[in-house]
Amino acid sequence: MSAPVANVPKQNTRGRVIFASLIGTTIEFYDFYIYATASVLVFPALFFPDATEINAILSAFAIFGVAFVARPLGSIVFGHFGDKIGRKGTLVASLLTMGIATFLIGFLPAAQGSFVILAPIMLVILRFAQGLALGGEWSGAALLATENAPKGKRAIYGTFPQLGAPLGFIIANLMFVGLQLGLTPEQFQDWGWRVPFVLSAVMVAVGLYVRLKLVESVSFTNVVEQKKVAKSPLATTFKHHWRPVVAGTFIMVATYVLFYLMTSFTLTYGTAKTTEQAAAAAAEAGEPFDAAAFVPGLGIERPLFLTMLIIGVVFFGIFTLVSGPLAEKFGRRKFLLLVTTSILVFGGAWPLFFGPGTAAAMAGLVIGFTLMGLTFGPMAAILPELFPANVRYTGSAVAYNLASVIGAAPASFVAIALWQAGGGNTVLVGVYLGIGAIATLIALWLTRETRDVDYDNNVA
Fold it and tell me: How far apart are CA 261 and CA 432, in angstroms?
């Protein structure tokens, strides 16, 4: 007679953990980035047809910033359920929310006729829903990866959900480049821009299928078994762990400022006309041109600049993966102090890259996105490690998304205003990045190293 088999708890396989954390954030960031790209290429004319060109762009970016206001609320809502009922169901809910909102954006009418006011309002509502979902998605994906990581490999596993950011960006922008090259400008403006939003439904279906097969992590299971589930995760977080919330928020600030300068701002600045191009266009149209009042950009064609961005983001992806082993070897704090100092130096050199021309801009994109990968990769490890397991979802989500309000939400808007104030010179944009880097350096300097915390049994 054979011996009875022990009742071994189910565990997530390594492949399932990596794929589920990667596919989820890839979808989420894809959804987020197609909005960011459309904010530059389509939405100003579609939803603000009566505004001046620069005011239409600023209005589109203002709605873009609505999501960053929603993200802290999303971190509270999804963090609450992630710490109360578990990571799996919360991750499914965040993905569904993001997917439905993005899909519906693809069917919005233009702001004309009876929809002249209603269309922008509907865009704001759906953009808010996107931000709400992303507010809960990142932390859950980071916990999915790190709470299932082998000992000594949390930072390495944590790079996989982070890799979803460059992958989502590349997929989104490849789609926009293909549509712009394959369609006439009229076709793209009329219906082509809607295709990436509608097709997101396919990716969401794949992500849901994978996530529904997950089982809960050992960390959360230990919380339940020890009867340490927080009655109010948010209240517990701010009562007993407010210092890590503040530290985590400012640890992320430089990362957010850098990323949105490298993507949304550079796309606007890089594709804006030079003084010569604007003068020629005005002469061809028989209109007067005031060179003194004009604020020039680099004048690069949009398909070319999107291609340049995609090349830069490849470096983002590569160095996101490189950052994991380095953060594991040297520790999160020491490694990020070095990277953030490099971001500060890059801010000082900003006008050397974004001003002279196409070749310099390409070099700037490669360097900036390399730094982005190195700073973004370890965040999925260091932010959750600041908090005990029973408030880890809430704490890391709130810190991550408060940083988005401070670092990401105003970045594109402020950078455009500084570019305008500089009359086309981007030195003030570099100063803005440097200020973000200094804030992060201070937070890192005041934060303890988290590499060796007992992750599974760290319950407050």
Answer: 10
User: Token pair for residue 353?
Assistant: 């890259």
**CB-count exposure of residue 228 (10 Å: 0-12, 13-18, 19+):** middle
Q: Are 441 and 337 in contact (CB under 8 A)?
A: yes
Residue 3 lies in a domain: no
Write the CATH number for 201: 1.20.1250.20
Nearest to 268 by CA among 296, 233, 235: 296
Does some domain include residue 335? yes
Number of domains composing the chain:
1
209, two tokens: 């299928």
Query: Would residue 326 count as lying in a domain?
Result: yes
Q: Which of 347, 327, 369 is nearest to 430 (CA)?
A: 347
- Give the pLDDT confidence of 134-150 residue by residue, as tens digits: 888 888 889 988 988 88
Cβ contact 161:23 at 8 Å: no
| Structural domain that includes position 146 | 14-445
Asked if 314 and 173 count as a contact pair (C-beta separation under 8 A), the reply is no
Question: What is the spatial distance between Cα 280 and Cα 324, in angstroms, rounded to a whole number?
Answer: 50
Kindly indicate the confidence band of residue 7, based on its pLDDT and cuts at 50, 70 and 90: very low
1 falls within a domain: no
Which tokens in the block code for residue 444?
Answer: 């890192």
Helices first, then strands: H and E counts in the chain: 22, 0
Radius of gyration of the chain (CA): 22
End-to-end CA distance of the chain: 45
- Measure the CA–CA gap between 239 and 219, rounded to whole angstroms: 22
Give how far Cα 202 sits from Cα of 20, 25, 206, 208, 320, Å: 15, 15, 7, 10, 26
What length is written for the chain?
460
In the numeric block, the tokens 């507010």 are attached to: 135
pTM for the full predicted model: 0.86
Tokens 């929310």, located at residue: 97
Distance CA 173, CA 41 (A): 11
For 150-161, the pLDDT digits (tens) are: 888 999 999 999
| Amino acid, res. 114 | S
Using the Cα atoms of residue 23, residue 27, residue 32 and residue 34 in order, give the sign of their dihedral: positive
